[in-house]
């Protein structure tokens, strides 16, 4: 993957947002006004009982999952999790000649959402890359704190490596992908595979991820009150995921705490960030570290949009562009594999 930012022509710190980047685009502003009206009576899910918060998350995300893009096939199956728990999986196949596999880990603060809430976005990625996309439901917090969700992700990755069931015979490159907390889990899994000498994917496609618990970062200050995701909500998500804060020192929890040697062993990465997002600096700091190591990963900063914008792909142009750019990064890796 080639390196760089969407704003390479400016001086200074090209990884961080400028003031103009943090102004809502007209399209984003209109969407947020619509959501404010539709969701006016709803509470903060991080302050609800988990069951109620999850029901609300499923309901509000349903609006992004209507009129699904057509696929060649979509099939459900299950694998056994590390605690004997069944892990529901869905394999999305965009065409008869789809090549490669993208394992997509959904976001939701480790606490909410599911493969259903992210299916439209996953289908968009599958079609753009003409690759199979595998989604699944991992165990959620606070009932199942770290490392339960990560262990489930590892079980799914092992099923991919072993060619379990419908995953048998899928050729081409493999990628680990995810958004927000799902990007955290995808990157943490890669780092754990490195630590354990396990097999890595050929690429990582990571969208506005959680990579550290630095609540004083520039973006946590800039976007402390949102719109959308806030600093207070993220702090609660972290408390759900790791009630023992000492655990956050681990790179398998906070990937930015990984040492340089581990980061150098990662596969090529596509990273994106939303300019108006408490997590923006997590991605900027990761991209900055990777470049300082001499790596050439792809970094894209999307101005004018908020955290979770790729969920809005049915009505937001930037979301569709982000999916296409991630797919291009995957296809670039696939092309290099064909020529070696």
TrEMBL record:
One GO molecular-function entry: triacylglycerol lipase activity
Domain Alpha/beta hydrolase fold-3: 102-310
InterPro entries: AB_hydrolase_3 (IPR013094), AB_hydrolase_fold (IPR029058), Lipase_GDXG_HIS_AS (IPR002168)
Keywords: Hydrolase
Gene3D superfamilies membership: alpha/beta hydrolase
Pfam families: Abhydrolase_3
One of the GO biological process terms: triglyceride catabolic process
A Gene Ontology term for the protein's cellular component: cytosol
EC number in record: 3.1.1.-
Family indicated by similarity: Belongs to the 'GDXG' lipolytic enzyme family.
Protein name in the entry: Acetyl esterase
Source organism of this protein record: Martelella radicis
